[in-house]
Amino acid sequence: VLETVGQAVVNGLLIGGIYALVSIGVTLIFGVVKIVNFAQGEFVMIGMYISFYLATQFGIDPLVSLLVSMPVLFIIGVLVQHFLIRRVLGLNDMPQIFLTFALSLLLMNSGLMLFTANYRTVHTWYSDEALHIGPIYVPVAKLIAFVLAMVLSGLLWVFLHATDLGKAMRAAAQNRGVAVLMGINPNRVFCVALGIALALAGAAGSLLMPFYPAYPMVGQGFVLMAFVAVVLGTLGNVIGALIASLMMGVAESLGIQFVGADSGLIVVFLMLLLTLAFRPSGLGGGRAR
Amino acid sequence: VRGLSKWSVLSLAMLAAVVLALPLVVKSSFAIDIFIRVLLFSFIGVAWNLMGGYAKQLSLGHAAYFGLGAYTSTILQIDFGISPWIGMVAGGVVAMLASLPIGALCFRLRGPYFTIATIATAQVLMLIFLKFRDLAWGAEGTTIPNLGNAPLMMQFDAKAAYYYIALGLLALGLVITYRIERSWLGYYLVAIGEDEDAAEAVGVNAPRIKRNIYLLSAFLTALAGTFYTQYIYFIDPNTAFSFNVSVEAALVSIVGGIGTLWGPVIGTVLLEATSALLQSWLGSSLGGVQLTVYSIILMAVILWRPTGLMGVMTEASQRIIERIARRNVARA
Fold first, then answer.
1. What three-state secondary structure class fits A289?
2. Do A93 and B58 touch (CB under 8 A)?
3. What pLDDT is stored for residue B202 in this prediction?
4. Whole-model pTM?
5. b/e map B4-43, b = 16+ CB within 10 Å
6. Is A136 helix (H, G, I), strand (E, B) or coil?
7. Which helix (H) or strand (E) holds B234?
8. Which residues of B touch A105 (CB under 8 A)?
9. Would you call B292 and A88 a contact, using CB atoms and an 8 Å cutoff?
10. What is the value of ipTM here, to two decimals?
11. Contact B120 A96 (CB under 8 A)
């Protein structure tokens, strides 16, 4: 039993690293721009298809195509902020919620038209490799994805704390009014925040590609996971989102191990509802809104 | 019908005559099918709009009640032989009961987190019906036994009968909305929608009002669920709790004009007409086209006309009235 639990925990932590990239993006956008991005999962999907086509058309390894998917999604993020989100800031809930929701529908369904509903996979030389650490089996592709996800999260943390732009972003998140008075250009900061958040989603997509199939609706599971993690980790808190994502990964994996293979989603939804019911302000105890 | 001008009574009567006569004139079953969809989704939109439109509680989980209504009447019919006419009301009551705990949970949250929680509740219900096969046929679902022409069991040979039932449901929804819009409840709802804290500060019991309107909205949505299952003679968790139902309920209201009496109807007419045109143009070959177009329309409305088509029409009619008035002044 201990081995099964250990294996489930390891599996959960490894996939939790990917969830972390998505959740950090959601929490960053919420913290800085005060918008919940319903379309975050669809940007993971775009990242996956970028890696898929680079791999099948040009034989580029998905890990290398990270260098393409991240910049492309950064630019998409800036465009989304500048042409879409900027126009609904300061309006009431309806446009703020349904704009990114419409974007999500649009991307999913145009994905369906462009790529069809077929599952696409990329097979790399490390896709089937695994390390055996004692009784525990660690798939190499997931391990690489996890390590790179942690490196990217670390880099984001350094960026937020050590650079002027990062500090400006945190300032805008804490108090937008004062930040503007201090000479911070909000739209520029928002554009960068969206760019970074989407680049992280794109990275998640590329990192998933060696061991996870791409299909147009693939983002749905990830974005729901991210919503739970973001609430659990206190909205707008990057470290909180990271830790909560790893916890979510483990919880889901234990659920699959002990309740049944198709129960992963039920576990996630129940956790979401329980979190919202009992800890709407997150485990850290900040404010939900 | 006090308070209606002579012109609105006249135009309402004309509209009623046209929609009542429609199945007598149009015989194509494809067209009747589209009309029934329009009436049904208008009705679901009207039910959503009571809570989502007036009180701005933006739910994306109304499929929960659609599905509960559908399953309640079907279980009553197949397992107990009870007529869907009774099952329909029973389904509405089940939906109302379900809306109490769901509301208690979701109304703790505001804005986007309310929306996310409603999505989750509908999905949990769908997963429950998928997973527990003893409850109701599991993932395969079941067909409704065809009894031929059995009006007492809500089964008809003529498609027109379904048309009139859907029309009746929509009329019910519109009358309820009309009455609420002009009552103290309507003003409370709008106050909550504008600014919940301010509404509470002036003495509106927001939690109670939200709970009550959610009960009503859930009840009406469940009626639609029963009707739809009877109409297509089939039920499974994926159609009964389909996320598309939740999305379309919100979408038709927003596109047509959120928080207005006729908004959901106008929105449905536009979206279903677009969808029918796309279907006849492309065939049903290209998956995703319909929702792609819907999402583009939704985005356009949000970015340029958050008041929806109703907003566009009121503005246009006001401009015409102003122009006429100005011309009369100039002539005098």
1. coil
2. yes
3. 87
4. 0.88
5. eeeeeeeeeeeeeeebeeebeeeeeeeebebbbbbbbbbb
6. strand
7. strand B234-235
8. 247, 291-292, 294-295, 298
9. no
10. 0.86
11. no
